[in-house]
Amino acid sequence: MESLQRKRRKILLLFLLGVGVPSLALGYLAFRGIRNELAVQEQRRLDEHRAAARLVSDTVVSAITSAEQAVATTLAGNQAVDSNGMVERIRGVTQQHALIEEIFLLDDRGTIRLPAADLLYHPDGSLTSGARRTWPASAAANMQTARQQEFQRRQYAAALTSYRSAFTATSDPVFRGEALIAITRVQRKAGQSQAALSSCETLATDFRHVRTTAGTPLGPTALSEKSAILLASSDSVAALSALLELYEGLVAGEWTLERAQYDLFDDRVTDAVSREVAPVLARDSLASTRERLAALRDTERGYREQTERLLVFLETAGEDLTARAGNRGGSTSANGARMALESNGNSYLVSLVDEPGLTINRSLAGTSRVRLRDSAETRCTGVRKRSAVRSHCGRMAAGTTAAVRRYRDEMASET
Description:
The protein has helices spanning 2-75, 84-96, 137-152, 156-168, 173-189, 193-206, 218-232, 236-251, 259-274, 278-281, 287-316, 318-327, 394-414; strands at 100-106, 112-113, 331-332, 336-343, 346-355, 358-362. The chain is an alpha+beta fold. The protein has a 6-stranded antiparallel sheet with strand order 2-1-6-5-4-3, with helices on both faces. Helix 5 (173-189) runs antiparallel to helix 6 (193-206), helix 8 runs antiparallel to helix 9 and helix 8 runs parallel beside helix 11.
């Protein structure tokens, strides 16, 4: 019995030594082989990723270098940067190089200029800070008399005569435009709607791009006044047409406006469309008009976001750039220095080009603004959707609000 058990143990031991141990060894070797193969595959993937990253990096750096060289070449020479020819060349470079968001100029005082920027509006005070022009003596006397007759005595017929005398007493389009605005206002007060509409048409055509001595453009003023007259006459369809013409001109950048001026006219369009003409706009026959208005709103949101981004850069980045330009902070390139800036929640990738005072702002996601209408000065059709507009800090917002009130008061006195 004991011998049988010994034999069984011997057989079991032989089995373990002959089968179990080799199996364990083979399993271990197989496990090690699999691990080694996985490690080799992981290393191969890492090498491929590194190669792809190097390729992308080299491609981007090459594109940035090419853009920097193109800018340096374009801006080299003695031609004034603000000249029409140079501005068109700058815009051409921006369109050819998708990495370029905007080309700007930086002086030693930290002042930034955007010579070719396609902004929806400009900072408040940047266009109307100069001294106002003085009326000719005879026309000024007629205007003063007319204002007394209009506002103090409410003698509208006499006021019209005096305003027309002021209109004919000068050949300056600025003063003639202001006189014609006053004529339109008095005609409206006197109940002469057709005559007021005719005056608005003259303003919108002959004085479309003239600015008053206060800096207010006459084109949008005339269209806004025209829509108000038509709404008062219960002609909502014609008023809607005038409002759309005004809105298209605003979004297309037909008039160079400050932020407060743009917001004033934009608010007038928004309020009128949402209140007075909303029932008319809901008609089935105006479906195409609703689509057109929706497309304009989408386009404006994109333009406004891009404009706010560039204005933040314009108003806040100069000091930082000047300091960095002095010590060449950031990475270097054959043409200058490259750096990243953060301002009010916006990120900017900037190249300082080694030309006196010349700089280039590049963004990897940068695109150029699309115009609206096809003409020699502006427009090709296109809509670009973007995320919500980033707001300025409280100080800047308060400044804008004050400017809006100022322009609203000026507009009230003119229209």
